[in-house]
Amino acid sequence: MSRLAGAAVRLTVLLGDDEVWHHRPLYSEIVHRAHAAGLAGASVFHGVEGFGASSAVHTARLLSFSADLPVAVVIVDTEPRVREFLPQLQELTGLGLVTLEQLEVVGTRSAD
């Protein structure tokens, strides 16, 4: 993992937690590919409620038995490195919304 400081981008992939790639959760496949590509960092965040292109609301509320809860995969690195990684995302089927946002990294520390 590389240390970041200054200008960077945040790549966010929004998808459902029941999406898979070769019997592995799609979010896990994305994180492992980002790690193998040497990107600075990736995290997965599970949502409790959301909707997307289908307009169906998915929720984790007790009385609802909805599956496919929302998941956000967030990857941060320099813009050239993230853009170099984008073709790997295109290989994966079923991707939801993918966004890129400019940001400034003001500090990092190792959580390991």
UniProtKB/TrEMBL annotation:
Tell me where on the tree of life, at the top rank, the source sits.
Bacteria
Provide an example Pfam family for this protein.
DUF190
Q: Which residues cross the membrane?
A: none
Q: Which InterPro entries match?
A: N-reg_PII-like_a/b, N-reg_PII/ATP_PRibTrfase_C, UPF0166
Gene3D superfamilies (UniProt xref):
3.30.70.120
Which family does the similarity line name?
Belongs to the UPF0166 family.
The name under which this protein is listed is Uncharacterized protein
What is the protein's species of origin? Answer: Streptomyces tateyamensis
